[in-house]
């Protein structure tokens, strides 16, 4: 499933596309909100792995402006609830993720991204 927790780890892997290939940009997406169990310890432990600007930009592409521009030093439950929602409850069901460098499009269908490349695109 394409959630922002997954999206934050994905980059373009087309042969020769090695710069400005992250984060992938969402295009023509349909999202669905699905409740997920809140686990503040998981979120606190996962936070250091997040590329914050990419997460905030992706959330804004999907219409969510709840996260601050900068990752906060002090983390309270209210912030963790917002982070939980953005990372784990927003599901991209249809659309595409597009590389900002080479414009390769990775389609999303039924919540599943197709990250496979054609033979000539593999490096």
Automatic annotation (TrEMBL):
Coiled coil (UniProt feature): none
The organism's place on the tree of life at top rank: Eukaryota
Gene Ontology molecular function, alphabetical: protein heterodimerization activity
InterPro entries the record matches: Trm112, Trm112-like
GO term, biological process aspect, one: tRNA methylation
CDD domains referenced in this protein's UniProt entry, alphabetically: Trm112-like
Pfam families the UniProt entry points to: Trm112p
Family, as annotated: Belongs to the TRM112 family.
Subunit annotation: Interacts with TRM9.
PANTHER family, A to Z: MULTIFUNCTIONAL METHYLTRANSFERASE SUBUNIT TRM112-LIKE PROTEIN, UPF0315 PROTEIN-RELATED
Name used for this protein in its record: Trm112p-domain-containing protein
């Amino acid at each position: 499933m394409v959630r922002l927790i997954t999206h934050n780890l994905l980059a373009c892997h087309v042969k020769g596309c090695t710069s400005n290939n992250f984060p992938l940009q969402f295009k023509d997406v349909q999202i669905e909100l699905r409740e997920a169990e809140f686990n503040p310890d998981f979120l606190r432990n996962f936070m250091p792995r997040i590329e914050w600007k990419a997460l905030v930009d992706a959330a804004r592409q999907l219409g969510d402006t709840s996260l601050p521009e900068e990752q906060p030093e002090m983390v309270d439950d209210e912030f963790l609830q917002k982070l939980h929602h953005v990372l784990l409850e927003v599901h991209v069901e249809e659309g595409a993720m597009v590389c900002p460098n080479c414009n390769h499009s990775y389609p999303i269908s039924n919540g599943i991204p197709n990250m496979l490349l054609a033979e000539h695109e593999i490096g």
